[in-house]
Queue: 2 jobs
Job 1
Amino acid sequence: MEALIALAIGTLTGCGVYLVLRARSFPVVLGLTLLSYAVNLFLLASGRLVIGQPPVIGMAASHADALPQALVLTAIVIGFAMTAFVIMLSLRARAELGNDHVDGKDEGGAPR
Amino acid sequence: MSLALAVLTPFICAPLVAWISRYGRALAAWSASGVAALAGLWLAPLLLSAFEGMTTIQCLSWIPSVGVNLAFRLDGLGLLFAFLILGIGLLVILYAHYYLAAQDSLGRLYAYLLLFMGSMLGLVLSENLIQLLVFWELTSLSSFLLIGYWRKRASARRGARMALAITGAGGLALLAGFVLLGEMAGSYELTVVLASGDTVRAHPLYLPMLLLILLGAFTKSAQFPFHFWLPHAMAAPTPVSAYLHSATMVKAGVFLLARLFPVLSGTPEWTLWVGGIGVVTLIVGAVIALFKHDLKGLLAYSTISHLGLITALFGIGTPLAAVAGVFHIINHAIFKAGLFMAAGIIDHECGTRDMRRINGLWKVMPYTATLAMVAAAAMAGVPLANGFLSKEMFFAEAVTAGGQMRLGWLLPVAVTVAGIFAVAYSLRFIHDVFFNGEPVDLPRTPHAPPRWMRVPIEILVALCLLVGIFPAQTVEPILALAATAVLQGPLPPHDLAIWHGVSPALWMSVIALAGGALLYLGRKFLFRLHDRFEGRLDARALYERLLEGGLLKFSRYFIATLDTGSLQRQVLIFNLAVLVLGAVGMLGAPAALTGSRTLLPVDGVSLLAALALTAATLGATVLHQRRLTALIVIGAVGLLVALAFVKFSAPDLALTQLAVEVVTIVLLLLALYFLPNATPAESSPSRRWRDGGIALLAGGGAALLSWAVLTRPADSIASWFLDNSVSGGGGSNVVNVILVDFRGFDTFGEITVLAIAALGIYALLENLRLPGPVSDNAGRPWDADSHPIIMATFARLLLPLALLVSAFIFLRGHNLPGGGFIAGLVTAIALIMQYLANGVTWTHARLPARTHPWIAAGLIVALLTGLASWLFGRPFLTSAFGHFELPLIGGFELASAMTFDLGVYFVVVGATLLILINLGLAHHASHDVQGEEAR
């Protein structure tokens, strides 16, 4: 099971890095989303994988590590705020510059 | 305590005065004067003991654990300066009320002035060296604001920057000097430092320490060769110049010389550097002043020259010279403030400060002219004015000191030459402006100034004469007090009288007066000579070459090399750096990759889900050029991640992820509407291979790292939270208890970040006008039938149900999976559903248009919950809980942390809606744009 999660985190990270290196703003935002999935999974995994033992007292005999979960919960919400901020930034850049290239220049010819 | 209050009062009241100034200029002037008077009142109870020669020291414990205190000291020197700062400050406040034009903000000027006043007071009343330095830097900063007051003028910005650069650099040197001095004396408290002069002077590092401290003092007091910032600071409004360059800012440097006089003086190095620089500055300033056509320029260089005089007096180093130095500090402050104010009146009435054009003003303003003449006589050192007394003491000291050294006759000669030039430029100030024919082409027709604009000058000029004629009755007590504090010992016998009999000093005065008059008569020839050499020797040019040419060029080059303005390149460098760091860590580790933990068995469903997750991720990457498709696939990835959370015992995370995924996809869909539908294939194959390689390495690294972490046994602090959740936090959902109770302060920070992000997005979207596409991908026009009736109806029916679910999730959050974050997201989704199904117009009319207040309310509720625990004497955000019974409903748990969670809930709802609705509105606006275009 651990290998599967490691594989998933690796794939998410790799694909996220590839997309973040693209030249247009939208793929970069998608890449950031993938990277935040990877980071959230990794943080959860740092509490080690536990099945069927949610950290709710009385629900199971022993419990998963609650601390990474609390960290990840706020990370998910703040990750959403950051994704939203970046996508708005790219909209603004498109409005100001006339294209969606991350460096503000349009290599592919005419804007739009 | 009262000393600290005196210093803090101007700081605290400055914003208040700026606010009051909205309600009228007179009110602003009254309140600003009130603040200055209040600061003086705090000092009043200590006056009696100060005049008895006692030193008051007040200590406020600040950070007791490291022994840092706020320590203030009031002795004669501090008292004298406090008098000057507050007294002249009051006059300047009155004067500025009439000087400043109606369109300039008086409140801003007063606020800056009060900030500066507080900094100066703190400087002269500090007992601790480091604290003194803090106030020293504050004077640099607040004078920057004052000099740059007319911020739209390039000259003001430049003057302010130059003053800040020079005095700021001096402040750094001073810090180094103070640290050396404090280490030598073994303490940073002035009481100890002042008593350890012998130890300090014998120390091997005495000379470097002295030079560093002098660098600070000389830059502040505009001593040669750092004098050039002062004339450029004349770009400030004249009240500011009158304040900064008579009694305060530039006097801070000589204050420091006076303050540390008992510790540092009495060595050949001190005499050489302080005396030498002082004499050079005295002469350079006096000579340049004569050739300045600008009224304030002349006064600026004369200030430099007089500061040189004071420095030279301290440099001579005898007790009597120090007394004369203190005396001249008082006299210069009085007559120079008056002269600057007179110059301000002339500038105000004529619209120019060029003395080649301002002539013959005697006919227009005889009264102001008389006042200016008395003040100028004091500057020149004419008998019966105060400047004469201290100048003659200076001449006498120069003769005595000159008699004790080799080539000593040069000193009296040099100071007499400076005296001649001082008389000449004072004559020029009076004769050029008030006589000398008719005015030439003035921008404004001069009139007599307003009555109250003259009052501050009248007071100052009266002081000039009073001190000049009756020195023993007026100035002697405070002078004796201040000089005793400077010397930290018995006062030398001195005689403040106009007539001392025929002495060398008297002859020097006579020569200066006669020579000055002659020099002024021959000015035409001198001006021609000066014009030929103009601009040859300019310290400012050197400064500009060094700072603008050297330092700024280097900074620009440095920044341009680091920041190429290309995000792609920056991200590449960042990723490569992470790879290198990761590789070094992984390859250098001695341990095996796989740890000893027993692994979980793989089941079929998990295998399938993991493969689906991997496949979807890869698919999204491969398909990323088709944006809509890639987005849908990313949504699938997010849902699979939520499933992983379910599997691995994190129900709260799964709920959050699910809700956030919905909001994110809706948001990205809305954004995609404004962006091109496809990404052009513009990366070259080699670049794609390169990025693919980096991605492979990064992904492989992350996978290996995860594997290494996952296979090792965990040693976590989680058991503490699990054990204390019910007993300490009153809830059985440990994740929620951590969020709202144990780590509530972190959560408070996080919802603040969320609120700031939402506001930032709101600002980004403001006035954003983007044209949307008029057709879909295949070129078909949008369907005009926008909102299907079945969906609209069901969405409306679902809303109460969804809100009920959200309330349920919120309420159970403390004990079962749920809580403020998740409930907030569910509510937001329920409301966004209405927008999607019913359209923006319909929904917007039925919901509050602005959700900013919700965010604010949430933050306030969370903050108040935290503060409430202070009422019970507990630390911030301590929670209380209890078990309650209600009829019908039964028993339930209530915790104060739930109120905090309610704050979280409101922030999440407000922020999410703010982001999505505003993007939706931009969306809506783009339809209108198209409609207009179509018509």
Job 2
Amino acid sequence: MGKAKMSGAKALVRTLESQGVEVIFGYPGGATLPIYDELAKSSIRHVLTRHEQGAAHMADGYSRATGKTGVCMATSGPGATNLVTGLANAYMDSSPLVAITGQVPRPMIGNDAFQEVDITGITIPITKHNYLLQKASEIPHSLQEAFYLASTGRKGPVLLDIPKDVQLEIFSPHQAKYPALEGYRPTVAGHPGQIKRAVTLLKSAQKPLIIAGGGVSLASARDLLVRLAEKADIPVVYTLMGKASFPNSHSLCFGLMGYHGRIEANHAISNADVILAVGTRFGDRSTGPLATFATQAKIIHTDIDPAEISKNVPSYIPIVGDAGQVLEQLVELVPEQKHDQWMLELRETAERHPLKGKSSGVIIPNILRILKSLVQDPIIVTDVGRHQIFTAHYFPVDSSHSFVTSGGLGTMGFGVPAAIGAKVGRPDRPVIDIAGDGSFMMTCQEVAAAVAEDIPIVVLVMNDYCLGMIKQLQDASYGRRYEACKFGRNVDFARLAESMGAAGFKVTREDEIAPAIEKSLAAGRTAVVDCVLDDPGNVYPMVTGSSLLEYVE
Amino acid sequence: MRHTISILCDDTPGVMTRVSGLFSRRGFNIESLSVGHTELPGKSRFTIVTTGDDAVLEQVRKQLQKLVHVIKAWDIKQNEAVEREHALLKIEVEDKRRAELLQIVTAVQARIVDSSASIWILEVTGDTGSVDNAFNLFKDYHILESIRTGKIALERGPSRVMKK
């Protein structure tokens, strides 16, 4: 940064450039106009969204598809509060994000000024850290610190709230000394003693199992996990967030675990004698009832966040550290082993419990099967609901950063904007959002943003004219009293898409599925396929009792 | 189970909200909280007294430790620390009871820090038990107002959280 005096807004844009930011997803307002004025002179791309929630999800999707830190921006007041769902979503799934919000000028803060809201107060529980900047000279350092915090340790969103007069304030940039972050020192390498204990325990195991969580992907440690599993011949199950953490078609992979998990995966958890859990927080959808979870197993839990150790599930050997470093340490020391008997047990269980989805008709499993045959190495994005679980089961992904889903918060409406962000980050890969009709309607206005910005995503709307997961729960637990789950008036999603300038297709017969998908992939522009399902079909397996072994399939 | 938690943190705006928010989110009532400067420039130290299940409290401690401005959060063991509270009581003094009240003031090592015609302000310092005891003895008199600080606690011996 030169010695010349500059405004806070200019310093902000300069610092974003020096951080390597390529794109900002945002929506302007009165309190961010000085920044936009500088952004116009910058090489950084700005994607104008149709709602600030979309901006946050786009930055999130961008981050998940690339591993980089996503950036979103909104104005003060309602602009900032509209980011809240997106920030909470990124926080729950440990997605690195930097959010910038405008704030009313300093002298007006606390006066209930027009479009004033205490966004740093609001976002304390849903950000890793946040700042309310008081001086333009703080901007360069705080922004650098925000990127550092977002992308290290347990990753997550960081918010900077910048009053408009601070953006306009002229200052002389200088190399001031700032205090180090004394309270922030993430443990990266696993403790050697704990690593040795873990190796000894793994060596002694007859029925070892690896749980792959989202932390493996966040640490870019997927290949190391494959090496470890192969070397020690250990079967792998994954959480929803960990779906892309291990190649799904690998012979050691036994699928999704948990509440909607595969029978063989949950059988493995319930019968394993040693479990190595990597980068998972043992969320309730992954464990089912805790009292009966993995009762036969001694658990080695490795996570970058010490607060996750023994939070939900007691760990026998905790290892705090980065998944990449810890797995490297383990791969080094673990001996080559064979667990033929255990593997046979799991394979037989798997054969006895195939997925029951039919490969005919306009139903989600069949659409996903056809999609799989028509597209090479896509990034699959999902919304939240029945289609999300179907996708986890019926669309195997084998490369990294291939599965983008809202795991922890379960945010309906995540899909379309997350897919847009993913496509901006990875224009070389097909990006396909599998949506439900409920989820799609929550953020479908972002299709217009994708069209305007020429971002060719494909959205497949699994349209059953109802809230499928709600209906499934009402089936299971509320005597089929379908209250507030049917939409009443149906929307023609193909025409809705066309009205926004996207290609729209409608599928009502099985023989229309493949042509519609082919056309949408070849359209070269944003495309929406309205798949009118002829049998909504509940998603199974589903745990129904007090343990993972009591289920409907 | 009652716990005393000590937190060393940066002295920065908003740190109180971040700290207390973690307690309320877990449904913990903060019985007392005191915060002030330390021998380290730019650093504050909290002493928080709270009641709760050990495992959940350990989770709160770990979450506190994750706050960027928190340098260290730890549980102080009562028998390894010196603990003090401070209280002020405004008492209306009747002439005929002045002598006996003075006896109690001496007995509990309180100090009269302000006195006017018939109003005394007493200062009491001690561990929680001693301050409770003083309040007990004064309760038969006409207490107009009283106030207690939160507890502060320092571990015995040469240990220190952080060097300058």
